[in-house]
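Section 3.1: Structural characterization of target chains.
Under the original work plan, the team committed to producing a structural model for every single-chain target entering the pipeline before any wet-lab resources were allocated. The record below documents one such target. The sequence was received from the expression subgroup and is listed exactly as submitted; it comprises 296 residues.
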Amino acid sequence: MTDLYVYVHGWQTAPPAAVRRASALLGLARELHAARPGSYPGLEKGYRPWAVVVRWPSSSLPSLGGYRRIRDRAHAMSAPGRGHAPHVLAHLLGYLDAARPDPASPAVLANRNGQYLHLVGHSFGGRFLCEAVQWAASPSGPRVLGWSSPRVPGRPFTADSMLVFQMAAPRDAFDRLFPSLFPSAGRAGAPLRGPLVLTHSRWDRATGFWHLRAEGTAGIGHSGVGVAPVPQFHARLLDVDQRYPAVALDHRLVNVDASRLFRGGARTRMAPAGAHSDFARPESAHLMLSLAAMSR
């Protein structure tokens, strides 16, 4: 194994479907790497991904009430004092730290065989990850984490990249809901070494139509991030035969417009969620592979 992906699914996803989707994405990534190895400098020594799928009850009626119920559940799973999501990630990373050899570099969650950690979320799963990582990184978070801890400065945990497809959160979420994710004066921020990359598509009805009615504004998955505490970069989702230049992804926060590809079929477009789940495609795997390669 060279790359470990922690995948958290979103709204209206049954546990078996979450495993199938994560497996499909990694399968596409393996196929792309095998077919076009020269397109991913940094992965010359191989790419052997593995996924840990965090499954949670996300099913509800396709209605405004159902959307709000799952939104509140996703928040409650990470809320300080009652949520368990930070503990799940903390113990997972603690296990990885105990099982791996000494890292080649203290700044990267890597060992002599080149293991890297990537976080991938979809919809409310992205919200879940952001809340969990933010809280786990705080001084009041679970002590099992070594993130930014002065007691073990040589063994910090670090996520090498974070990719969220069609995030179900307000456009000002990184100012209002996740203020500790990024570093600021007097605060180191969450242990996210690489970029936070988020896709959006105007064909996403879940974060457009439903999010607008539930929260009074379109969501990130529909319109991208609005305001944020760090500068943003805007890019578009590329075809598999187009390389991502480093300048497109090497930023704290990257908005990727996927409207050209995340459209859904005729039936999907008329469904309550629209193209919200139309991301299990080679172009998404291409973005994942590019992030993995640039993490080296």
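Strands lie at 3-8, 49-54, 116-122, 161-165, 196-200, 232-236, 253-257.
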